[in-house]
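A brief tutorial aside. Many learners find it easier to grasp structure tokens once they have seen a single protein encoded end to end. The record that follows does exactly this for Condensation domain-containing protein. Read the sequence first, then the structure, and try to relate runs of similar tokens to stretches of the chain.
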Amino acid sequence: MDHTDSGGGGLPLSVGQEGLWLLHGLAPDSSTYHLAGGVRMEPAPDPEILARAVDAVTERHPMLRSVYADTEAGPRRHVLPPGATGRLTVREVPGAGDEELRRLVAEEVATPFRLTDEGPFRAVLLHRGPDAVVLVVTHHIATDALSQWLLWRDLLAAYAALAEGGDARLQPPATDFDHFVAAERTLLESSRGARQAEFWREQCAGSQAAEFPTDRPRPATPANKGASLVRRLPDALSERIRRAAAGREVSQFAVALGALQALVNRWTGMRDFLIACPASVRRSAAREVVGYYVNPVLIRADVTRDATLGEVIARAADRVRQATARASYPFPLVARDAGADGPLYRISMTMVATDRFDGGLEVAAAGEPLQVAGLTATYLEIPHLEGQCDVSLEVTRDAQGLTVALRYDTALFERPTMERLFDQYVRFLTAAVDDADRPVGRIPLTDGDEKRALLALGGHPGAVS
């Protein structure tokens, strides 16, 4: 189990964590790698009880009370005693309207972490009076998507137990993140690791990062600023995607990725390109551990205009199977070994399935309120992880359907461009399940109304019926 470091050499980081530590050092004020989630609670929770619940969570998960430092042996993690960091901050905001509340949330999410002394976790109560927002912000060096839901499950469970006069102490997980770090080092020193390295070198050779045409020139130094568009797909479309995936014996992710690959081809003409797909490398034994168990894997596309969407999806599914079987090889080493002049990816896509959550959180992820110790708690989608790459698509699959978050670099793209891209992606998703035998080159990028508007701008109104 993770242990409290008492001034020794500290605990080694995973390769992925080392990469994030390096990025933090280059841009310590950036919020690009902040994860955030919030819950609106009505009536407002008891601040003292909530503070004790937060303490119980940080006691159970040592990663949340870790600080980081450079040493002669490389970057190291030091675990602080419970209560030393990560305590609840209460901000009284009586009378604040919803817009003001959103501004305060955005301000908290954007506040930099001091990983050397503050650690990678903070919890904030924005107390309005009749209701409140409980906000949790973490740095990616310590968590991933599943870890965020573990935090919320444990926090709400601890609050409920304390509010009902019980004990909030949570049992420590059966394993810890150090086991993952040790297993990764064993892999890298093995023949299996060498075979995986060779696979990734071949996967990257001769290909290039997919990228959409930008509205503005790419700055010499990344701005690391972004924005998000979040939309829930129509329930009927989500159900057709589920059925189409089952009928083709592929995952829903493969359908969604194939539609994106086809859209990239239509926007750019690129045929051979790479898209990154963050993959979980968490084993079942670590299900209860908060940590950075994610690794971007590169999916190489081969898309031609005469290929059907069904063919593109089948290829995507096959490439995803090959890549995820080798997902444990750290991406920073893939990038190093590839020796490319620029980034290996500028577009990423991931899918999070909420059926892995428990404690009622699958329902919460779909926007349904939970009852916690007599309070109504509604999960809030809060923009985060913006500006990591040009464009990223994050698909959340819950019990009711699919929600898509499109995050983009605001230094490169205007919002109308991304809204158009989002609309066209949904159009390609629809074609993927309703008309998968249609060639990629024949999928319309605009609907009838848009065509008429474009033709009218060109002086040909009414040319399209």
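Self-check: The domain at 11-172 is CATH 3.30.559.10 (Chloramphenicol Acetyltransferase). If you spotted this yourself, you are ready for the next section.
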